[in-house]
Amino acid sequence: MKKILFFLSLSLLMISCNEKQEKPIDDNQLTAEEKSDSTNIKTFFNTALTNGKSYEWLRDLTQNVGGRLSGSPEAQMAVEWGEKVMNEVGLDSIWLQPVMVPHWVRGEKEIATYTTNGVQKNVAICALGFSVATPNSGVLAEVIEVKSLEEAEALGDKMKDKIVFFNRPFDNTLIHTFKAYGGCVDQRVRGAAICGKFGAKGVIVRSMTNSIDDFPHTGTMSYGDLPAEQHIPAAAISSLAAENLSKDLISNPNLKFYFKQNCETLPDAPSFNVVGEIRGSETPENIFVVGGHLDSWDLGEGAHDDGTGVVQSLEVAYLFKKNNIKPKNTIRIVFFMNEENGTRGAKKYAELATLNKENHIGGLESDSGGHTPRGFSIDANSANTTLLQSWKKLLSPYGLHDIEKGGSGADISPLKDENVTLVGYRPDSQRYFDYHHTSRDTFDKVNKRELELGSASMASIVYLMDKYLYGDTPVKL
Amino acid sequence: MKKILFFLSLSLLMISCNEKQEKPIDDNQLTAEEKSDSTNIKTFFNTALTNGKSYEWLRDLTQNVGGRLSGSPEAQMAVEWGEKVMNEVGLDSIWLQPVMVPHWVRGEKEIATYTTNGVQKNVAICALGFSVATPNSGVLAEVIEVKSLEEAEALGDKMKDKIVFFNRPFDNTLIHTFKAYGGCVDQRVRGAAICGKFGAKGVIVRSMTNSIDDFPHTGTMSYGDLPAEQHIPAAAISSLAAENLSKDLISNPNLKFYFKQNCETLPDAPSFNVVGEIRGSETPENIFVVGGHLDSWDLGEGAHDDGTGVVQSLEVAYLFKKNNIKPKNTIRIVFFMNEENGTRGAKKYAELATLNKENHIGGLESDSGGHTPRGFSIDANSANTTLLQSWKKLLSPYGLHDIEKGGSGADISPLKDENVTLVGYRPDSQRYFDYHHTSRDTFDKVNKRELELGSASMASIVYLMDKYLYGDTPVKL
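^ Those are the sequences you sent over. The predicted structure of the assembly is below.
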């Protein structure tokens, strides 16, 4: 009986294992050339998953440098760190591109509070990037809740001396969370510009997240062409605080909200893009850019945004070198500075590319987090888009199914041209806005395998682009 | 200039948002019937993502009941919890299926240590399920490291009075982590049966995980038909401890390893499967089973294994009822007892199905964690496999690309028959073995959206199976 049970339990165990078998590519469906590509792609994945460097690089960047907002001492440390790790990989050449960047500082931790029904509530807030400070005594005012810029604009003079509270939540029914972000972020970026015009005392904006929690999400804002005297302080409040405030405003519409923040925009500061390359073996004048951004918001450690993109980009070069796979064209790794509040690094990079008459044939950016791979978004002409989509059978065994037309990324998009093939790496997005621009964006939120699979995914598409894309036409900027 | 910068930054922002646009199904590619299906599927996802219940159910089960090994008071609490939540959903009928289950208890926390080069090292271990205890004084012996059952068997009498250390790691190059698990778990299940035969004093087995960390992973083992006097204690040691011990054995091959554990197998205990159903509107005699397992290992909270499968299964019923979508056939939700160490609940369920001449036409199991959806594994005849794969265009917008032939799950596979279509839900597996069977398998590791997307994915395939699969032939068990 025991023996029967033993084999029964073993056979159940085997069912349980067999059911989860690896599905290799059916070699019979591949041409000889595709088999060779398939082998090289497998090599990238094997190396990343067994000898990857990205996770330890990320640990170093996030835990020893930490948050690294443009202009900060940490951003300068990150530049030095970037040179160091590029040297470790042994790139053919490494240099810094000087660029002046905005220098906004948060100052002391923000505070916010209101009292309703005799109960004082402390509210989790943080200043938005580029916001002015409140007066030293803070701002105390009644609150008007709105769901859109249009609704705010329609208030006109009614918002004078009030705090305007933007509270349109993410549409959680959208499967791709970046779409929900795109549907809300106008409140954060433009809210203060609209309300400053009508004499509001400040704006508070519901945090950009799918979840209900008590972490405020910072991010950039702009006063547009509003005169300086109309600039009003702008803060993000946590989604939980937004829900509570909205309820409290129903029972107590005249409650007064208080907040105080101490942020300041200092004069522009010198900084750098960090650049390194593997020189092409056949047509080194043709360049593929692979990059992420080195700066991050100050609240967390800049792990998923965008430490992961930085270390994955460098790991692309490492995977080529470690496996002695020599690209025909030049693979250039760029750690862009200042994506978060200005994209000055991206602009400088494109400006120099024009100035130096460089021939960019393509680019790949990783700035959507370091979660498990899902695919790529392609910003290219139809022929090249079709070509990239034809690689699905080589890429889908690695979970790379979503290979669709779309944008690439903020740092490489200034290179956009009919003949330049730009690609954005697209990992799974479900958890991304739990961490984005908050104190929770820390190293421990990144999974080693997910990160490494991303590096190998990126190396694979760079390998295919290097081999099969032609880049005869110089980029026209 | 400021205005230019404002619009430039806005346009960059828009690029950054547009590039991540939701890609809806192209309606022109769908038949009228498929459009209706597409609408219902979207409804499942919208409801799960905005009014889902699974996350709060999971919080309750994991945090108020906790780990719930078969035969424990917590397992009985989980049964009562199961009845309660099924009642909340308002299923047409709810009942318990009595089943006798193994009752193994861990006892006091295990300890393990060894001394090398004058340094005493404490080792993270845990007893394997069904293992005997060590003597009260523990086991102290020299260690022989092996990488496989074959290597152990070949040692023969050389292992007498020794501790055999099974140290074959996961193959991290396998993209699907369950495959790596399948390639190692024989060491855990059968190691002690082989070594007990030759008079070893105990076995210690490297934890079943992709990562290097200090958490021991428990799991079931078996002595097979070995006489009781040859049963030797079996423990898992953390992957980090395994790496260190392996190194220390090189410099100090005669080091003595000590461990002590206090576990015990008590007489079988009474327990239950919890069952509830929505009665079919047209052919209620045809049954689809949807389930996960209610029991869990004792070390954590049984969150990903398999609290998520339990709450997702119930959410399938909730999504049908909430949206007033009436299945033609009966949808039966089952919380199986004792998947982890015996699958007695599964066997009892299948036995009763035969006894009661029930006509099962299909089943769906969720027991691979609660991470982001990837697809389904199909265990069915060719015609039905092809039919399920034809639904890819309806399912792929939700990240469900991997719809392949394979196994289903340990709890529904006893229903296997040529005419029964069994399906396993397959979420992303990259992080799963970071938590599996450890103290880390806790509620906080589950992401709300990922969990809810899984529920809706499951409801969608049940909806399609209910509508399009015919089940004229009774199940033959």
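The first strand of chain A starts at residue 93 and ends at 105. Chain A has a mean pLDDT of 94.

Shout if you want it in another format.
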